[in-house]
């Protein structure tokens, strides 16, 4: 690899890590807005989305420029395709954080509405998945990426519990249907964030091992067994 290409790839990594940090901050703020009713955060989250959009475009242009100027093969080509996918997933996570913030404001309009007990745990777990996917990227840690994928099942379980809680609340009091539906939508956005964190983890496994595990999570265990034997 030429020094020029190496320098450009390192710069690209720094930009993506910075974007990771900003998106992680947005979903943590969205968590506070939704679960702790901190409405002063809603406008901050939504305003941050414009910067994320601009940086996503910038990173994509950098990737395309590197592909055009250098004859990347093997690991470098795999790295660039991984960065392109993660970049897109981060932009979508930022959009979902904005949607959660908007729904938090809608729910807040009904101060008597009780936030479902399992929702804070669900959001915390989804935020943890994004944090772990960032760490797996920074450290090229394939075991951590596998742990992210395994955590998605627990977020799905929390999601089902939140839906059940909301259903019971609406049965008990038909007057809270509207805030319950806003809350239901917010929970769905959190579940999508967990899915995207899982996508990032799958991309990291592809980058590190060259193994495509999307839709084939049984391969994760096979990779683990291979790692133990080698």
UniProtKB/TrEMBL annotation:
Keyword Transcription: no
Compartment(s) of residence: Cytoplasm
Presence of the UniProt keyword Transferase in the record: no
Matching Gene3D superfamilies: Phosphate transport system protein phou homolog 2, domain 2 (1.20.58.220)
Matching InterPro entries: PhoU, PhoU-like_sf, PhoU_dom
Keywords in alphabetical order: Cytoplasm, Phosphate transport, Transport
PhoU domain segment(s): 18-103, 120-203
Protein name (Swiss-Prot/TrEMBL): Phosphate-specific transport system accessory protein PhoU
Species assigned in the record: Mariniblastus fucicola
């Amino acid at each position: 690899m030429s020094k020029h290409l190496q320098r450009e790839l390192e710069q690209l990594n720094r930009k993506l890590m910075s974007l990771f940090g900003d998106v992680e901050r947005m979903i943590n703020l969205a968590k506070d807005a939704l679960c702790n009713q901190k409405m002063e955060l809603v406008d901050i989250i939504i305003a941050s989305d414009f910067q994320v959009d601009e940086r996503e475009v910038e990173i994509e242009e950098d990737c395309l420029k590197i592909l055009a100027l250098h004859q990347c093969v093997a690991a470098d080509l795999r790295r660039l395709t991984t960065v392109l996918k993660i970049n897109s997933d981060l932009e979508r996570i930022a959009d979902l954080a904005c949607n959660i913030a908007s729904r938090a404001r809608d729910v807040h309009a009904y101060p008597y509405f009780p936030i479902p007990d399992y929702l804070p745990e669900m959001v915390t777990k989804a935020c943890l998945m994004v944090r772990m996917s960032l760490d797996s990227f920074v450290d090229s840690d394939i075991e951590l990426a596998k742990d992210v994928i395994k955590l998605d099942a627990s977020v799905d379980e929390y999601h089902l519990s939140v839906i059940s809680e909301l259903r019971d609340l609406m049965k008990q009091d038909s007057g809270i249907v509207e805030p319950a539906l806003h809350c239901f939508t917010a929970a769905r956005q959190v579940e999508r964030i967990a899915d995207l964190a899982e996508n990032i983890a799958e991309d990291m496994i592809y980058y590190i091992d060259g193994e495509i595990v999307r839709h084939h999570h049984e391969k994760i265990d096979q990779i683990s067994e291979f790692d133990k034997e080698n």
